Amino acid sequence: MAKSRSRSNAADQSNRVVKVGLTQMACGDQPKANLARQLRLAEQAMKAGAQIVCTHELFASQYFCQIEDHRFFALAEPIPGPSTDALGKLAKKYGAVVIASLFERRAAGLYHNTAAILDADGSLLGVYRKMHIPDDPLYYEKFYFTPGDTGFRAWKTRHATIGALICWDQWFPEGARLTAMQGAEILFYPTAIGWHPSEKPEHGKAQHESWELMQRSHAVANGCYVCAPNRTGHEIIRDPRGRPVNADGIEFWGQSFVAGPDGQVIERAPSDGEHVLVVECDLARVERSRTHWPFLRDRRIDAYGDLTKRYIGA
Hints:
By secondary structure, this protein is of the alpha+beta class. 26% of the residues lie in helices and 25% in strands. It has one domain (18-298): 4-Layer Sandwich (Nitrilase/N-carbamoyl-D-aminoacid amidohydrolase), CATH 3.60.110.10.
């Protein structure tokens, strides 16, 4: 009898297919309208069978980090709060997990770039707070966001064990590895990345390919699925009088995608326009990948101590 149950459980493990949904949209300057648009796209994904849905980064607003301006702190919201309440109701209605990327007001003077994880019953499983905070031209995130203190986390949801990291985190292999080591079968990277229009002719192709290649490498190195929803649209932030603060703004490149454990892109959205991806992920491929390409087995953990240092050398 015990052997029969063992065979049954093995069969169940070999037939675990979950549908993931990624929402890609352009954002305006009205948070309520952005939330309504996000709810519509998330529901569209769920109606198409998506069991786990992930938004792009900071879906409730335009990408305000193009400038340093104190008025944008008013965009932040608590977690739980209005957005998690609305998405939680949708999650419960369809029995779907939701990863929602939000500007979190944790306390007075304490703000984070946060992914809220909602389980299929609509409950808040927890949050991941963005660990790596960029400070580049038009990406002035250090002005707004306190670096995350959650560490890298994986959650056992109703449909799969997942990890969520956020945008700039995607360039760091350590975060992907530490999340996968906790059993994550799918890594989600809510993203807001695009071109500086003046740089696009010379650097645009290489920038996009580097972004995608880096995340595909996480899939290979960790034997898991990687899902990257990105915003689209050309955003120019304006001052209180309605004047552009930067004539060029950012042209977000969309192209949200899902990569399999072998790093191959299963499906990719177009560069512009609203889009919903719904992709089947066969979780048995995770086990096969990790046993056939046993990178986790062959790690030399006895030799990696210097990774916790800032620099090695004279």
